[in-house]
Amino acid sequence: MASADQRDKLNCSTCLNIYTDPVTLPCGHNYCQGCIGNVLGTQEGSGVYSCPECRAEFVDRPALQRNRKLGNIAERFLSTRPERNDGTGISCTYCIHSPVPAVKSCLHCEASLCDNHFNTHSKSGKHVLTEPTTSFGEQKCSVHDELLIYYCPEDYTCVCVSCCLAGEHRGHQVALLSEAFEKMKVKLGNAMGTLTLKREETERKVQVLQEHRREVEGKAAAETERVSALFRDIREGIP
C-alpha cells in the first residue's frame, strides 16, 4: 500500500484529491483535467494564463498534455485502497469531480469536508466542526440565524448568542452545548445504571414468583391426584 508521502504526490493541488484524468501544463505541473480546465476558464479575457502552482504565464491558453503514466498510477492506487464507508452517505462539498466521503461538517461554512479538506480547513473559533450532516438549518437559531452554541436548562432548548444577550433568554443561566452535553451524558449514564439495577432486581423477583408458581402448581396437581384416588376408593367400596 502507498505511504502517506506517496499518496500526497498523487493529490491534485487544486481539489486536494487523487488525480482524475491528470494532464500536464507546459511548465510541468499536473492537475485533474477538470480542475485546471475550470482555472483556465476563469482566466479567459485576462490577456494571460498562468499555472496555479508556479505562476508560470502563457500568452495563449496552454495545451493540456494527458499524463497517462500518472493516471495509471492514480488508478492503481485507488484500486488497492480500502474503500471507506462511514455510513453517513454524506460527501465532501468541495470534491466536485468525484464523491468523497465527508469526515466532518463546518456549521459556519455550511459545508462538509473530506480528510484532505478537513486538514486544510480553518481552525478558528467561528468555524464549528461537527459530525457529517446536511441539516445545517437545524444548527442555527430560527430567530437570529446564528449558530446554536448554548443550552438553556430553564426552557430545555438550544440558543444562540443573541438569544442570551437580547432575546427572550436574556438573564437565563445557560451553558455551552459541549458542557451541557457532557453533563447530560453523565446524568443519563447514572440513570441507565439505576435502571439496570432495578431491572436486575425485577428479574430476580419474577424468577422467585415463577418458582413459587411452579411449587403451587405441583402441590395442586398432587392434591388433585389425592382427591381423585379417594373418589375411586369410595366408588369401589359401594356395593
Give a summary of the structure in a few sentences:
The protein has 239 residues and is an alpha+beta fold. The protein is built from six helices and eleven strands. The protein starts with a helix and ends with a helix.
What does this structure look like?
The model has no long low-confidence stretch (mean pLDDT 82). Strand 1 and strand 2 form a beta hairpin. With 239 residues, this protein is an alpha+beta fold. The chain contains 6 helices and 11 strands. A 3-stranded antiparallel sheet has the order 2-1-5. It has a 3-stranded antiparallel sheet with strand order 7-6-8.
Features:
metal-binding; 239 residues; 6 helices; Znf_RING_CS; single chain; Znf_RING/FYVE/PHD; zinc-finger; three-stranded antiparallel sheet; 42% helix; alpha+beta; Herpes Virus-1
Low-pLDDT stretches: none
CATH homologous superfamily caption of one domain: Zinc/RING finger domain, C3HC4 (zinc finger)
| Residue fraction in strands | 5-15%
Which overall shape is indicated by the principal axes computed on the Cα atoms?
Answer: elongated
For the residues shown, what is the average pLDDT? 82
For the record, what CATH class of one domain applies? Alpha Beta
Could you tell me how far the N terminus lies from the C terminus, measured between alpha carbons in angstroms? 100 Å
Q: Specify the number of helices.
A: 6
